[in-house]
């Protein structure tokens, strides 16, 4: 479908279904997620320049809509809000306490522009927060009613490394309702679209589409393949789970601790970090109180506080906890990695700490001695 009429029809169809459409839009010098009432609010002709500790919004020379990398927010902000009320308690006229669970009906969301890395991140959060007998019921209610429009990446950022994490730049996972691939060439600006669910097929049937021609299919495929070749970062080609297990005592942790501000930015922008804490608030009379859940971070000194003090008192121990959990012990808990290669932690770190650089340094420092059997390090022989 053509870009303008297709996106206009898509947003219109989703709004007509009573959905709150969330998508990328330009605000405050960044491409951020927000409610979109019209396709005109999408970032037509905008891109970003990324580096470790650096984000810049830039004008493109074309009208591409989704040729930009992940911004500071992820879809986690809508499925797992930064702050939400869990329950309320009131004292009635007889002095008894009456508890009331928060049961507000969530909006019927439509997420427009979900990148493959973020699609995997949503699947990770589904397992963490929505799986098992004690999954967060509020999360489940929000997630079950969400319509997902994924967009394949054709222009990676300098800090993206989804290829090495197996999460992109093409849509590889289920969990989407529609998937778009944006194409802009001498034949025009258009989207290749496919349905991934019955709900997606019903919406697709209402859009102005025509059968895809071989040229558009080839251009879409080459756009995604080209993005994979131009990926800005990569994790070392090792078993990251094993690397984290063998590097617990590496000196490199001291190096990163000397740079890390323990601000928690990396955990706030990460699309899979899920840690929370709870707090109670009350009025002056003491007759009404509420329990609220809010995001927390393992970089917070009080996060591991027990009687007598915090378990992880040093920056070294807190950074090590975050990285080894994300790349290593997450597998033990949830059967997969907690990193999807979006690169947000690299961009939004105030001092530019790069998770791929740290993993490579740990590997170089702790790699088993390849010359231990059958020879010395530099190919030299030794005479007994």
Number of DSSP strand runs = 14
Q: What is the distance, rounded to the nearest whole angstrom, between the alpha carbons of the first and last residues?
A: 74 Å
Low-confidence stretches: 371-384
Estimate the global geometry from the Cα principal axes: globular
β-sheet strand percentage = 15-25%
Q: Give the total of domains.
A: 2
Instruction: Compute the average pLDDT.
Output: 91
The gyration radius over C-alpha positions equals: 24 Å
Helix content: 25-40%
Notes on the structure:
Helix content is 32%, strand content 22%. By secondary structure, the protein is an alpha+beta fold. The protein has two domains: 3-229, no CATH class; 240-366, no CATH class. The strands form four sheets. Strands 2-1-7-8-9-10 form a six-stranded mixed β-sheet, sandwiched between helices. A four-stranded antiparallel β-sheet has the order 6-5-12-11, with no helix packed on it. A two-stranded antiparallel sheet has the order 3-4. A hairpin with a 2-residue loop joins strand 1 (20-27) and strand 2. Helix 8 crosses helix 11 and helix 9 crosses helix 11. It is globular, with a radius of gyration of 24 Å. The termini are far apart.
Write the layout of secondary structure elements.
Elements: H1 3-16, E1 20-27, E2 30-35, E3 46-51, E4 54-59, H2 76-79, E5 83-91, E6 97-101, E7 109-114, H3 116-130, H4 137-144, E8 147-151, H5 162-165, E9 178-185, E10 188-195, H6 198-204, H7 214-229, H8 240-246, H9 252-259, H10 265-269, E11 276-282, E12 288-295, E13 305-306, E14 309-310, H11 315-334, H12 344-347, H13 355-366
Parallel strand pairs: 1-7, 7-8, 8-9
Antiparallel strand pairs: 1-2, 3-4, 5-6, 5-12, 9-10, 11-12, 13-14
Helix pairs in contact: 8-11, 8-13, 9-11
């Amino acid at each position: 479908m053509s870009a303008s009429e297709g996106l206009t029809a898509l947003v219109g169809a989703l709004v007509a279904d009573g959905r709150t459409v969330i998508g990328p839009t330009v605000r405050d010098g960044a491409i951020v997620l927000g409610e979109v009432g019209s396709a005109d609010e999408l970032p037509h002709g905008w891109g970003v320049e990324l580096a470790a500790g650096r984000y810049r919004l830039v004008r493109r020379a074309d009208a591409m809509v989704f040729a930009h990398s992940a911004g500071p927010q992820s879809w986690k902000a809508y499925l797992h809000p930064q702050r939400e009320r869990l329950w309320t308690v009131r004292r009635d006229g007889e002095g008894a306490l009456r508890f009331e669970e928060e049961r507000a009906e969530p909006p019927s969301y439509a997420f427009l522009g979900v990148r493959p890395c973020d699609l995997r991140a949503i699947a990770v959060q589904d397992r963490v927060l929505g799986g098992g007998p004690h999954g967060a019921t509020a999360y489940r209610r929000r997630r079950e009613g969400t319509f997902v429009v994924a967009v394949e990446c054709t222009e990676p950022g300098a800090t993206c490394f989804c290829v090495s994490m197996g999460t992109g730049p093409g849509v590889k996972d289920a969990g989407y309702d529609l998937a778009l691939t944006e194409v802009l060439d001498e034949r025009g600006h258009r989207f290749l679209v496919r349905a991934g669910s019955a709900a997606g097929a019903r919406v697709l049937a209402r859009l102005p589409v025509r059968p895809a021609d071989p040229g558009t299919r080839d251009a879409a495929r080459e756009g995604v393949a080209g993005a994979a070749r131009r990926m800005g970062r990569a994790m070392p080609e090792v078993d990251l789970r094993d690397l984290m297990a063998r590097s617990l005592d590496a000196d490199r942790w001291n190096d990163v601790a000397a740079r890390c501000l323990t601000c928690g930015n990396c955990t706030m922008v990460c699309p899979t970090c899920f840690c929370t804490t709870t707090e109670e608030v009350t009025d002056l009379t003491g007759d009404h109180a509420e329990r609220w859940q809010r995001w927390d971070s393992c970089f917070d000194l009080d996060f591991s506080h027990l009687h007598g003090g915090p378990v992880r008192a040093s920056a070294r121990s807190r950074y090590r906890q975050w990285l080894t959990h994300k790349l290593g012990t997450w597998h033990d808990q949830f059967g997969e990695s907690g990193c999807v290669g979006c690169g947000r932690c690299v961009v939004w770190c105030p001092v530019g700490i790069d998770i791929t650089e740290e993993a490579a340094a740990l590997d170089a420092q702790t790699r088993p001695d390849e010359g231990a059997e059958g020879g010395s390090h530099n190919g030299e022989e030794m005479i007994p």
